[in-house]
Amino acid sequence: MNPSQILMTYFGYDTFRKGQEDIIASILSGRDALAIMPTGAGKSICYQVPAMLLSGITVVISPLISLMQDQVKSLNAAGIHAAFINSSLTENQIAKALSLAAQGTYKIIYVAPERLESSGFMRFAAEADISMVTVDEAHCISQWGQDFRPSYLKIVAFIERLPKRPIVSAFTATATEEVKADIECILRLRNPQVVVTGFDRENLYYSVEYVSGRQKDDFVTDYLDAHPDESGIIYCATRKNVDALYEMLSARGVAVTAYHAGMDNGVRKKNQEDFIYDRRPVIVATNAFGMGIDKSNVRFVIHYNMPQSMENYYQEAGRAGRDGENARCILLFTAQDVMINKFLLEKKEFENMDPADIELVRQRDAHRLHVMEGYCKTTGCLRNYILQYFGEQTDAPCDNCGNCHREYIETDMTDEAKCVINCIAETRGRYGQAVVIGTLIGAKRARLTELGVTAYRSYGALANKKEAELRRLIAQMIEEGYLIQTDGAYSVLQLGEIQALKEENARVIIRAIEERKEEKGESKRKPKRKRSTDSLTAAGYDLFEKLRALRLEIAREEALPPYIIFSDKTLIDMCVKAPENRQEMLAVSGVGENKYLKYGQRFLNEIRAFSAVNPDAVLSIEQEDQPEAEEKETNAGQAWSEEEDRRLAEEFEAGMKIAEIARGHGRTYGAIRARLKKQGMIE
Ligand code: ADP
Ligand code: ZN
Predict the structure, then answer these.
(1) Beta strands 509-515 and 406-412: pairing type?
(2) Which ligand is nearest to the CA of 516?
(3) Contact indicator for 518, 407 with CB cutoff of 8 Å
(4) Mean confidence (pLDDT) of the chain
(5) CA 271 / ligand 1 centre spacing (Å)
(6) DSSP codes, 410-432
(7) Are residue 177 and residue 285 in the same domain, yes or no?
(8) Residue 523 within any structural domain of the chain
């Protein structure tokens, strides 16, 4: 077989993606390889396909147990013999696996880096025919990266001890120039073929939402209400936040679970599985969650708090949309998050570190936090901000992020902010907001005369402003830490950290957000990406739900995560193609020979049963690649009457599913979605 045939037969895909073919060809020619490809780009295929074609075994070094297990399950499901060797197995199990491996049972074995030094493994390696050593998550070898793992340094010695030097291939999603150089040098790659595919993940939609602390919960519940069938992760900065949000959501009946390092191991494991197996598709977690989570159908990642760096953010947000379908990465931002993070960084402890190094790390952390804050505050394209930070060239704004779809009205209120500070200084922080604002606008109230504030210099200093404006300004100044509002019944305003405002280019900017109307139709740019489910009609969506249910049933029988059986994308393609026989089923993207043997018939039966009940059902409509396609489709058939719009809104509010609504209206799933979107009821 050649690589394309392997791809088709085992993985069920008909074409290679960008970069995959080059890497595979170069490996097969005997050359080392270093591939830097974003998450979800398809790195695994790059070593799994050649592993099938090389004469001996491929040893894959991977840092995470769960990742290995997932990969091995997927490979076995595809009919490829693979095993893992790590500390989750007993000594006996390891000995057995190694003896099977020595007999040539497996084409691919995954090992943890620590394992390379163990005598059992060394004995095996000295005898076995190892064709390739693959280093996954290769950035772990560099001390420059975030995830430095000392055990990765042992890989070189391992390779050098082998009787015959194998091909060495290294893969990572995140590599700055320094890290890339480290990988090449420390692993001693020989004239490697280096392939860097873009960092961008087109299917991710980034947005930053300015919401005050109290409104965050509302934002989350609204979002979950509008996206009821989706799986997602909500990251919080602290365990306390995780617990509180989890309580709140489960009280509302959301199928949610939680994860943080303070939980007992057993509970954590169970919660993680509930999430992976889609028993509870939403998880609230601290950043302890996610390493090695390979769940492909995560449709959103919401950050309840701002992370400490872009590196963290990109990695966490990047857990969305690994299946290539559209997904959202939403960051909820308040200025307080910056303060909290500064505080956490100050508290950070350093053990056994040179004071000079500590100072360097502190500076680096402060810089990273600053960059992260910049992301939250920029009014420019968010995607470009990320790409530029990671050293990529960017062109025009992406037209596929929150900022590109938003217009701001910005007002510089720095001078007014200074007046507020003067007023509070002058009145020595004794008054609450009402008095402060009254004083500033020079209100004629008996109460103010009584207090004597009419005699102050600040009295009437902002007479030309409206009260509402000043209220917004003060709220923002509190958020940014310039002012403090005391607790209790007699809450007063006091000065906070006003030093920062004395810097020359310090600004207090009030941003009022105005959503850009989609109807303006002024977008000459790239067409927006669509969800594949949008091509399904209401009937098609019904079938999709049936196939999902079948997948869940099989997943339970086999104790496998549903996405290992088939991805959402594959199920959608099944609805679109509605295969009737083996050959047609094999033409569905993601259905290879082995999966066909295992599951094909059951899915064919389900599709046949569906067609028998709905003989004339049209399951999908052609997706056109023009921006107006959605529009046309919406207007297909009769136009929308006001009456129908009202009914639509009512039905949606009442909790009816989009597919049900579509059926009732005799319209497509995509058309209803588009209409709801237009009405601002969904995103
Ligand atoms: P990475 O390790 O780069 O994050 P994966 O190897 O997990 O990405 O691949 C992400 C997804 O893309 C998987 O579901 C995989 O099956 C799918 N995929 C990989 N290569 C192809 C391809 N050539 N055609 C279609 N899907 C692919
Ligand atoms: Zn953008």
Answers:
(1) antiparallel
(2) 2
(3) no
(4) 86
(5) 26
(6) EEE-HHHHHHHHHHHHHTTT---
(7) no
(8) no
Whether 217 and 353 share a structural domain? yes
Position 523 pLDDT exceeds 60: no
Q: Which helix (H) or strand (E) holds 156?
A: helix 154-161
Residue 2 has pLDDT above 80, yes or no: yes
Q: Pick left, alpha or beta for residue 186 (phi over 0 → left; psi -120 to 50 → alpha; otherwise beta).
A: alpha
Residue 102 maps to a domain: yes
Q: What is the pLDDT of residue 336?
A: 81
Show the domain range for 539. 532-678
Residue 463 pLDDT greater than 90, yes or no: yes
211 and 142 in a single domain? The answer is: no
How many domains does the structure of the chain reveal? Answer: 4
Nearest atom within ligand 1 for CA of residue 74: 16
Question: Which has the higher per-residue pLDDT, 596 or 668?
Answer: 596
Taking the CA atoms of residue 87, residue 91, residue 95 and residue 96 in that order, the dihedral angle to the nearest 10 degrees is: -90
Q: Are residues 482 and 607 in the same domain?
A: no
CATH number, domain of 545, equals 1.10.150.80
Among the bound ligands, the one closest to the CA of 293: 1
Judge if the beta carbon of residue 322 lies within 6 A of ligand 1. Answer: yes
What is the band of 61 on the pLDDT scale with cuts at 50, 70, 90? Answer: very high
Report the pLDDT averaged over residues 492-501.
89
Q: Which ligand is nearest to the CA of 47?
A: 1
Kindly report the protein residue whose alpha carbon is nearest to atom 23 of ligand 1: 16
Q: Provide the residues around ligand 2 (an ion) whose CB is within 5 A.
A: 381, 383, 397-398, 401, 404
Q: Do 642 and 664 fall into the same domain?
A: yes
Nearest by Cα to 207 from 502, 405, 423, 460 = 405
The CATH number assigned to the domain holding 282 equals: 3.40.50.300
Q: Which of 28-42, 435-449, 633-647 has the lowest mean pLDDT?
A: 633-647
Alpha carbon of 241 to ligand 2 centroid (Å): 30
Whether 37 and 162 share a structural domain? yes
Task: Quote the DSSP letter at residue 455.
Answer: G
Tell me what percent of the residues of the chain surpass a pLDDT of 70.
93
Sheet containing 193-196: give its strands across.
Answer: 82-85, 108-111, 57-61, 130-135, 167-172, 33-36, 193-196
Considering the domain architecture, whether residues 175 and 224 belong to the same structural domain is answered as: no
Tell me: the pLDDT tens digits for 531-547? 677 778 888 888 999 99
Evaluate whether residue 425 is within a structural domain.
yes
Residue with tokens 């075994």: 57
User: Looking at the structure, do residues 254 and 355 belong to the same domain, yes or no?
Assistant: yes
Please give the angle made by the CA atoms of 661, 665 and 671, to the nearest 5 degrees.
Answer: 75
In a domain, 179, yes or no: yes
Q: Say yes or no: CB of residue 319 within 6 Å of ligand 1.
A: no
CA 330 – ligand 2 centroid, Å: 13
476 C-beta closer than 6 A to ligand 1:
no
How far is 476 from 511, CA to CA, in rounded Å?
10
Choice from 11, 196, 323 to test ligand 1 binding pocket (greatest atom count within 8 A of CB): 11
Q: Which H or E run contains 412?
A: strand 406-412
What pTM does this model have? 0.66
Mutate to test the pocket of ligand 1, among 5, 16, 17, 137 (most ligand atoms within 8 A of CB): 17
pLDDT tens digit sequence for 133-150: 999 999 999 877 667 888
- The total number of residues shown for the chain amounts to 683
Residue 214 confidence (pLDDT) above 80: no
The answer to whether 258 and 234 are in contact (CB under 8 A) is: no
d(CA 109, CA 96): 13
Which string of DSSP letters, residue by residue, matches 571-617?
HHHHHHH---SHHHHHTSTT--HHHIIIIIHHHHHHHHHHHHHSTT-
